């Protein structure tokens, strides 16, 4: 114990004798550790943000998208043709055991006017179940009811962005009259803000009205009875895959699709999206991590290089120490401790720098970052290991010097 | 002499330099008793430095026996020899060999550190050793802030701080002016006379050898003369060498 303390003191003194060189040597490790911590923070932050956005679409959500059909040899993409109908949606709700709720919608860009203000936004006609499926509460007023749907009442629920553009600050939109495509509507509620999707779309820039009202009053009758998309929620998270299978089977049957034929619809679950984004961000994080690890490695080589120079430079000193009774292990330990101190102090500084850099990036660039304690601890310990690994060779070289030759070294 | 402190019997040292074998020592036998002050002289290449290295446990003889205080040290391992150097021997070199950018007192503490002396005791003993060579008040000076003579005195303090049996001095005045040489030799002589410390001093200057009670002359790896003499009391002779 005393040996460690004394060796520590000697090592610190040796490093202090060459402050600039010690600092420059550490810099490699500082940058390496800071890079690892910052990179992992960015990777984890991005991952967490994407996962949160996916969850913001709703819980246990499945999406049935029309399209991917073949007409006269022309294959259209998803959503190209409205092949899904309200009847399909009803059937899913009725017949699929793993599906809890079903909502469907059609959308169109419309102009909405309030007083002397106007705003172009997406009008979405949908059933009241939409609110449940997407898990989207209102912050004031209420969502419209099934009775509004049944009687095609002219009521509307506004998204946050629409409210901000039409109404003054502090003004309560609930109860106000707005005109959509020259049709007067009564505002019954304001939706909670969901923010942007991961692809940058403002989820709050919309207004929602009963499907029947939209079909008859706003969207036109061209595709009556068809829907743009069906949302279904599974009864439980574990049932998502089963629900997707039931929906696929049902629609195969209803659309008379033969085995081998292209589907005219697509069922997608949030699980798929979450998994895809998770594996993408894992690849990204590993990539960043390996780049950062390389700089740690380079830092380690820097330590080794400087220690080798230092051993040569201090050959005489080593000879003196041996002459007055230092054993091989004393010398070995001294240089090893120097290497470890260099790398650990560098690692600690890098840790602080990395945490600060992650914080700075999330402030300035508005990138989400998430500090990962295992990455912080891991990179700090790894920097110590780098010190031991790269310090050992020079230290052993010093310990094996011949005292006579070392004493005579000029 | 059965009670010799240093007992060297037929010691050979042969260096293999490529194809050539250099015989640095060719059968040297010497006994040095406790409390003796021995000067070792000889031309360069005579083997006196090799002899000192072996006496100082820095090197091992190729052949022959070396007993220090009754223990055969010619077969010890490197670490065991390090221990012997630490406890029984003190070194003073021509170029002082202090650790640069390290204060005088820390230089003196060094052997105590390797000798596992308790931390609390190290500082006290180092302070006493510096006081003994007249350097009280200069504990925190760096070697670069000290004159040559002061540096050599620090080196002597470092050699003595472990209370060794033998002080080995290799041309201790080689880098010093006459006045300072005298001071250093006076310290060495006093250590021998007052504390009975055994001294082996290598030099090539007869004036300095005159301080010793006994002079060993080396030539071609052999001791060619072993003369006892009355050591000079005063350092009058020093300074008049050519």
Keywords:
heterodimer, A: 410 residues, alpha+beta, 2 domains, six-stranded mixed beta barrel, two-stranded antiparallel sheet, 13 helices, elongated, B: 242 residues, alpha/beta, Rossmann fold, six-stranded mixed sheet, four-stranded antiparallel sheet, 7 helices, 33% helix, 27% strand, globular, disordered C terminus
How does the SSE layout of this entry go?
The complex is a heterodimer of chains A (410) and B (242).
Chain A: H1 2-17, H2 19-56, E1 61-66, E2 70-71, E3 74-75, H3 86-95, E4 99-114, E5 117-126, H4 129-133, E6 138-141, H5 146-150, E7 155-158, H6 160-166, E8 177-180, E9 183-191, E10 206-210, H7 211-218, E11 229-234, H8 240-254, E12 265-269, H9 270-313, H10 315-323, H11 328-364, H12 373-399, H13 403-408
Parallel strand pairs in A: 5-10, 7-9
Antiparallel strand pairs in A: 1-11, 1-12, 2-3, 4-5, 4-8, 4-11, 6-9, 7-10, 8-9
Chain B: E1 6-17, E2 20-32, E3 37-42, H1 48-55, E4 63-68, E5 71-72, H2 78-88, E6 89-92, H3 104-114, H4 119-132, H5 148-160, E7 166-170, H6 178-195, E8 198-202, H7 206-209, E9 214-219, E10 222-228
Parallel strand pairs in B: 3-8, 3-9, 6-7, 7-8
Antiparallel strand pairs in B: 1-2, 1-4, 4-5, 9-10
Helix pairs in contact in B: 3-4, 3-5, 4-5, 5-6
What is the number of independent domains of chain A?
2
Order of helices and strands of chain A: HHEEEHEEHEHEHEEEHEHEHHHHH
CATH architect. name of chain B? 3-Layer(aba) Sandwich
Largest sheet of chain A: 6 strands, mixed, barrel
CATH-assigned fold name of chain B: Rossmann fold
Structural class of chain A: alpha+beta
Strand order, sheet with most strands of chain B: 6-7-8-3-9-10
Domain tally of chain B: 1
Shape of chain B: globular
Number-wise, the strands of chain A total 12
The count of DSSP E runs of length 2 or more, i.e. the number of strands of chain B, is: 10
Q: Could you tell me how far the N terminus lies from the C terminus of chain B, measured between alpha carbons in angstroms?
A: 38 Å
Low-confidence blocks of residues of chain A: 69-73
> Helix content range of the residues of chain B, please?
25-40%
């Amino acid at each position: 114990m005393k040996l460690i303390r004394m060796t520590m003191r000697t090592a610190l003194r040796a490093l202090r004798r060459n402050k600039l060189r010690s600092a420059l040597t550490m810099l490699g490790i500082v940058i390496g550790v800071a890079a690892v911590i910052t990179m992992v923070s960015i990777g984890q932050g991005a991952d967490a943000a994407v996962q949160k956005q996916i969850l913001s679409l709703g819980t246990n959500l499945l999406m049935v998208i029309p399209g991917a059909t073949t007409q006269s040899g022309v294959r259209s993409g998803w959503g190209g043709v409205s092949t899904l109908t309200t009847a399909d949606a009803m059937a899913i709700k009725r017949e699929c055991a793993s599906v809890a709720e079903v909502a469907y919608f059609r959308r169109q860009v419309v102009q909405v006017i309030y007083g002397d203000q106007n705003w172009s936004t997406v009008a979405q006609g949908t059933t009241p179940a939409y609110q449940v499926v997407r898990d989207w509460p209102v912050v004031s007023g209420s969502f419209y009811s099934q009775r509004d749907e049944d009687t095609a009442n002219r009521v509307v629920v506004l998204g946050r962005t629409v409210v901000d553009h039409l109404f003054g600050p502090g003004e309560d939109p609930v109860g106000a009259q707005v005109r959509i495509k020259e049709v007067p509507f009564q505002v019954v509620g304001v939706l909670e803000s969901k923010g942007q999707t991961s692809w940058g779309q403002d989820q709050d820039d919309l207004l929602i009205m009963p499907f029947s009202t939209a079909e008859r009053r706003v969207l036109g009758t061209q595709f009556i009875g068809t829907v743009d998309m069906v949302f279904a929620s599974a009864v439980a998270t574990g049932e998502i895959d089963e629900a997707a299978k039931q929906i696929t089977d049902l629609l195969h049957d209803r659309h008379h699709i033969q085995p081998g034929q292209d589907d005219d619809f697509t069922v997608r679950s949030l699980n798929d999206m979450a998994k895809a984004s998770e594996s993408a961000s894992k690849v990204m994080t590993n990539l960043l991590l390996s780049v950062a690890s390389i700089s740690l490695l380079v830092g380690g080589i820097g330590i080794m290089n400087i220690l080798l120079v230092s051993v040569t430079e201090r050959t005489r000193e080593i000879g003196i120490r041996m002459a007055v009774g230092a054993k091989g292990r004393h010398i070995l330990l001294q240089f090893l401790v120097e290497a470890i101190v260099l790398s650990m102090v560098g690692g600690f500084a890098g840790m602080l720098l990395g945490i600060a850099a992650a914080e700075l990036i999330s402030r300035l660039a508005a990138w989400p970052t998430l500090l990962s304690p295992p990455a912080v601890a891991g990179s700090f310990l790894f920097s110590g290991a780098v010190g031991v690994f790269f310090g050992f060779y020079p230290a052993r070289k010093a310990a094996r010097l011949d005292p006579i030759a070392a004493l005579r070294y000029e | 002499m059965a009670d010799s402190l240093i007992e060297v019997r037929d010691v050979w040292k042969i260096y293999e330099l490529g194809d050539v074998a250099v015989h640095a020592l060719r059968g040297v036998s010497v006994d040095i008793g406790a409390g003796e002050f021995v000067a070792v002289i000889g031309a360069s290449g005579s083997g006196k430095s090799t002899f000192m290295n072996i006496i100082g446990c820095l090197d091992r003889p190729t052949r022959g026996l070396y007993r220090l205080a009754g223990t055969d040290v010619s077969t010890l391992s490197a670490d065991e020899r390090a221990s012997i150097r630490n406890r029984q021997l003190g070194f003073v070199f021509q170029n002082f060999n202090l650790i640069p950018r390290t204060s005088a007192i820390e230089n003196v503490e060094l052997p105590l550190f390797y000798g596992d002396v308790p931390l609390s005791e190290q500082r006290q003993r180092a302070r006493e050793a510096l006081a003994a060579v007249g350097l009280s008040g200069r504990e925190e000076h760096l070697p670069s802030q000290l004159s040559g003579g002061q540096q050599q005195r620090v080196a002597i303090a470092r050699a003595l701080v472990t209370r060794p049996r033998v002080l080995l001095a290799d041309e201790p005045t080689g880098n010093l002016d006459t006045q300072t040489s005298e001071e250093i030799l006076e310290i060495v002589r006093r250590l021998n006379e007052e504390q009975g410390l055994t001294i082996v001093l290598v030099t090539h200057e007869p004036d300095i050898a005159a301080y010793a009670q006994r002079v060993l002359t080396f030539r071609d790896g052999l001791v060619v003369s072993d003369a006892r003499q009355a050591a000079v009391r005063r350092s009058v002779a020093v300074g008049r060498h050519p």
